[in-house]
């Protein structure tokens, strides 16, 4: 078993002293988790991402209980996403004007097959799926495969590019019935983080499958890139 660093041991001790907190208190606790560390223990030296984890009362093995979606958070995520667009014809100029970082067709697909992944989001016009389809084995496991359900296969290329540039995030329930999603950075003020989290939770609630019975949102926690999680009351 890998030995925990002094920093992580101190953070785990501090986080473990909290009960399940209301959202506002949980956000404050996360933002101050690295304050007052023992002498000689330094906090992380970068602006960490903040992530929400939710345990849902769904069975992801059932197609009608697969929860996935995308949302433009009210305050963005504090990161400029690199957007790639598979397009041809007039859509090339549309994607470029909207701010896409990479625009192309088969030549981009070939680069990806060779291991190039210098982008965060892939968007495709419907007429490019013949080129994009074979990339499923590469992009699928990374959660980067364009799909109509996520809004990344679309006729409205300009809107899709602008939304992802503005901080749109995607999520998908995993095999353990958990949803993980970035909601900002520790440098965000507490109110903005709370607004983003509330928007995400509301959206996930709206995606509850009709076939899901019993308690839907079973538990929730927030954490930063290099911190333990803090449980949030649901």
Helix content: 25-40%
Instruction: Report the total helices.
Output: 8
Q: What structural class should be given to the helix and strand makeup? A: alpha/beta
**Shape annotation:** globular
Order of helices and strands: HHEEEHEHEHHHEEHEE
Through-space gap between termini? 33 Å
Describe the structure.
The model has no long low-confidence stretch (mean pLDDT 92). This protein starts with 5 loop residues before the first helix and ends with a strand. With 234 residues, it is α/β, with parallel strands linked by helices. The radius of gyration is 20 Å and the shape is globular. It contains 8 helices and 9 strands. The strands form 3 sheets. Strands 7-1-8-9 form a 4-stranded antiparallel β-sheet, covered by helices on one side.
Descriptive terms for the model:
234 residues, alpha/beta, single chain, 9 strands, four-stranded antiparallel sheet
Summarize the structure.
The chain has 234 residues and is an alpha/beta fold.
